[in-house]
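User: Sequence recovery, please. Input:
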């Protein structure tokens, strides 16, 4: 059965985080993004969310490039094709190089629409098996060690299954040593966001003493070879994030020995279809995966929950509850964490409703494209 799309609405939103999120790249306080709403001839509505930031510090994409790609390339391509399944978009969008976040935003909405037309959950449509997922929490760089320790304590009291800490040169070994003294058995990982080089090997080797789950993306965002060299020197598993944009990157990383764990973000790899392909390949090669976060609002968070329901997402992801990030989210009900777990919605599609009042409150512009 073909997906009979009648219109696409691009809602541009601006939402303020409860607390500034600080990494080695800088500080994020306000999230500017698009919620994509795809409506078919039967009135079904599918929702996707863009994850690019307003500046190209994570990847080359931004909010403005996302809009450009959607309006000038991706939606026109979609108009020229009849599709029956979201997987077909990978071939349709193939003539467009990279721009993975723009592709993922539109593809995610089509996946949600497809699941709703089938009367199944998005998790089921993707091949998910779990009824609940384990979640961890990512804590940005804090102004003081006391503030960091308090945030870790609060997160553990809420039941989060692991703690992720941001590090950068000069803000690493002493920090982790202090944290380990206070939380000797807590599952902890660190994320460097490409802040180090092989010249920092003596510092990175010191992290082996702290029994970390992993060190995420220590070296350059485009690198696989130096990560392979580094992994040979470390006992701590390396997890790749920014270096992984496709299944082909995964194949090369595994062949080279660049990592032992992979972080899957659907926005970074071009959508849910590619995410599932990466998941399946990693499962076959015994590489555990987990779902990273991009400070998503409710729609993007719902997509992450569905994706994490797949079997090889065996490590807690970054999909914290709505209230951790937002005073008010755009979905109803909120994403809620209980005892370190989120229940995977069983309803059709993403399993959450759009809070239209909240959507109106945060919308700064809206564009309607008729088919």
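Assistant: Recovered sequence (371 residues):
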């Amino acid at each position: 059965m073909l997906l009979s799309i009648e219109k696409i609405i691009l809602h541009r939103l601006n939402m303020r985080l409860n607390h500034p999120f600080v990494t080695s790249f800088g500080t994020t306080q306000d999230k500017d993004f698009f919620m994509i709403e795809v409506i078919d001839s039967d009135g079904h509505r599918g929702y996707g969310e863009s994850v690019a930031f307003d500046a190209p510090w994570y990847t080359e994409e931004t909010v403005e490039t996302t809009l450009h790609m959607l309006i000038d390339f991706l939606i026109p391509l979609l108009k020229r094709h009849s599709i029956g399944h979201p997987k077909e978009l990978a071939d349709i969008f193939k003539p467009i190089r990279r721009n993975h976040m723009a592709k993922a935003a539109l593809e995610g909405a089509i996946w949600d629409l497809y699941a709703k037309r089938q009367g199944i959950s998005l998790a089921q449509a993707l091949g998910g098996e779990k009824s609940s997922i384990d979640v961890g929490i990512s804590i940005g760089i804090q102004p003081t060690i006391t503030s960091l320790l308090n945030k870790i304590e609060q997160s553990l009291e809420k039941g989060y299954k692991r703690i992720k800490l941001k590090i950068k040169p000069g803000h690493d070994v002493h920090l982790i040593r202090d944290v380990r003294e206070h939380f000797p058995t807590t599952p902890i990982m660190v994320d460097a966001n490409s802040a180090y080089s092989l010249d920092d090997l003596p510092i990175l080797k010191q992290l082996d003493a702290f029994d970390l789950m992993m060190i995420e993306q220590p070296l350059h965002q485009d690198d696989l070879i130096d990560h392979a060299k580094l992994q040979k020197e470390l006992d701590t598993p390396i997890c790749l994030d920014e270096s992984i944009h496709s299944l082909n990157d995964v194949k090369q990383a595994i062949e080279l020995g660049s990592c032992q764990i992979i972080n899957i973000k659907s926005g970074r790899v071009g959508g849910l279809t590619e995410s599932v392909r990466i998941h399946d390949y990693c499962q076959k090669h015994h590489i555990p995966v987990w779902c990273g976060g991009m400070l998503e609002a409710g729609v993007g968070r719902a997509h992450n929950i569905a994706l994490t329901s797949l079997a090889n997402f065996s490590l807690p992801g970054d999909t914290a509850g709505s209230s951790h990030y937002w005073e008010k989210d755009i979905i109803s009900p909120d994403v809620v964490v209980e005892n370190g777990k989120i229940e995977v919605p069983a309803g059709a599609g993403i399993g959450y409703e759009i809070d239209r009042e909240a959507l109106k409150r945060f919308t700064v512009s809206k564009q309607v494209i008729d088919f």
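The chain has two domains: 5-119+354-370, 125-343.
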